[in-house]
Design goal:
The complex is a heterodimer.
Chain A: E1 7-16, E2 19-29, E3 34-38, H1 45-53, E4 60-65, E5 68-69, E6 80-83, H2 95-105, H3 110-123, H4 140-153, E7 158-162, H5 170-187, E8 190-195, H6 198-204, E9 207-212, E10 215-220, H7 222-227, H8 232-237, E11 242-248, E12 254-256, E13 260-261, H9 267-270, E14 279-284, E15 290-291, E16 300-312, E17 315-321, E18 327-333, E19 345-350, E20 355-359
Helix pairs in contact in A: 2-3, 2-4, 3-4
Chain B: H1 2-34, H2 51-58, H3 61-93, H4 97-108, H5 113-124, H6 129-138, H7 149-173, H8 177-185, H9 190-201, H10 203-218, H11 222-227, H12 235-243, H13 249-273, H14 276-279
Helix pairs in contact in B: 1-13, 2-13, 3-7, 3-10, 3-12, 7-10, 8-9, 10-13, 12-13
Classes of the chains: A alpha+beta, B mainly alpha.
Chain lengths: 361, 284
Amino acid sequence: MTSQPILRLRNVVKTFGSFTALPGVNLDIEEGEFFTIVGPSGSGKSTLIRLLVGMDEVTDGEIWLRDRRIDQTPANQRPTCMVFQSLALFPHMSVGQNVEFPLKLRKVPAEERRARALELLDLLRLPQSYYSKRISQCSGGERQRVALARALAFDPEILFFDEPLSALDYRLRKTLEKELKDLHTRTGKTFVYITHSLEEAMVMSDRIAIMNKGHFEQIAVADEIYGRPVNRFVAEFMGEVNLFDVTGTAGGGLAGAGLESHMNGHAETCGVAMAPGASGTLMVRPEYVRFLASSDTADFTLRGILHGEYALGSRIQYEVETPGGQVITVEKLREDRVDRQPGAEVVLGFDGDHVHLIRGQ
Amino acid sequence: MERHDRKLGLLSAMPLGLILVLSFLAPLVVVAVFSVMPAKVFTLAHMPDFSAYGVFFERGYYKSLLWSLAMALIATLALFLVCWPLAFGMAKVFGRFTLVLTVAVVMSLFVSENIRLFGWVLTLMKGGLFEGYFRSLTGIGFDSPLYNTGIIIFGLVYVYLPFMLFPLAQGISMVPDDTRQAAADLGASRWQILCQVELPLAAPGIMVGSLLTFVLAAGALAESKILGGQAVIVIADDIETAFTFGQNWPLGAALSMVLIVIIGGLALFGVSRIDLDAIMGRKR
């Protein structure tokens, strides 16, 4: 990555009447990265992307594209482009005319336009015969590819995506996620993607920004956000998680309700050492929690009653309720399915290498 | 069961169907047959000789027809230009004000066309509302703008405005907002969006509005009589004269047939080119 970010946001504010959608956003997006903004609905991510492409005006703050300030530039003069949630294809034009639209606006000669459009259909794995098809004759996935081809024909500096996969069925979405990732690699363009789906973000992104109530909770690579969330919101937003309220003990270890610690002093090496009396939240993902046999040991153990077993396809999810009423989620691969009936008393355990401590919460 | 239903449907549509055939088609057939009768007869029991159609060219009636068609064309174009921004506002911008505007425009239809046109005469004539007050205040008079082709076209635009406005607003509401935004995002200027996205996507509305206004304006009579003072004779005027003063029904019928064929052909052509289902709000 180059040293200068391709897109910089400085204190971007957007208000609608008395409602503040974005209280002051700062963001740097690097040249060529696949950057995904994830957030629940109402988090302000759609508002943000509309500001970035120029469909809405910023109330205050600055947006810089390399050395050029673009926050006052109208959408049709910005060198960026967006793939809409609805795709916004032109229904009165053929596939070819849709793809050629931005080229036609630039008065590219017809021959050249056609050649470029066919090239893009190839890139998106659409047969060349689609060139003269009507949009209404294309399936959902094909329309998606046409919208991408049209956006790429524009040759944007940054390509924005506003949840374009959300309307598609699961299988197609999974396929297109990978294709999009692949397309990013092949084109080398900067992709900025917004979605409410964490999975989508994890599959495709170089970096993920978690957005909530108009600000970013955490911006980092997927592994970092998944393994070391900065707060409870991020931890819970990024999929299934078990959280324990813990306090530091006199021995430099930690303790929580129903949670037995057997760290024996290596809390330091696992990064979970706490000052006596300090409070925090201990996080462990369901796939790191084990069912312990009587002879097994673990750094942390807890007891509970097995409540339910749910099949998640390749994995099985268990829910175990502790005496304190907390429900612990455990996930195992199907081949590691445990032979215990609901209602059985079980001992769960997990190790210090697999936990993450969120301090001060 | 389904066949039974269909039979029932046909049966229940029968009475209205018969009334429609009798009241709509029969007069048309009578007019068509009259148009081929010899001049100045009042029954259909004569040998057809098609002489009335010859008169159409010999006596220069085609000039009236051309006047009618030309003025209807100009009025339709003017209406399109006037109504587009208004319809755009109604469909996309005005919000609640759209209802007010709709009611206001529809209310004008409650008053008979002739009375409204006479209102314009009183307003525009020499010594009328405009010129009269202006002269009494400043001492300077001016000629009335009445009694020429321009004022006839103004009258057509004024009277047929609702017939362009509402279909156009309906057409514009069919243009999805995101296609306009996408076009802008892809670099299109306001003008390019209009020409390449809005006009083609609103085409059904444009077609319906244009057909309605053109067809009505081509057969209009009151505007040229009341506002135009017969500065030009329109085809509807000729038809009326033939049936009344002229007492020449075959001539009137022949003139009517020419107008019907031209307008009917145009309407069929226009309707065949657009997706009526789309503008009625049905999924294609």
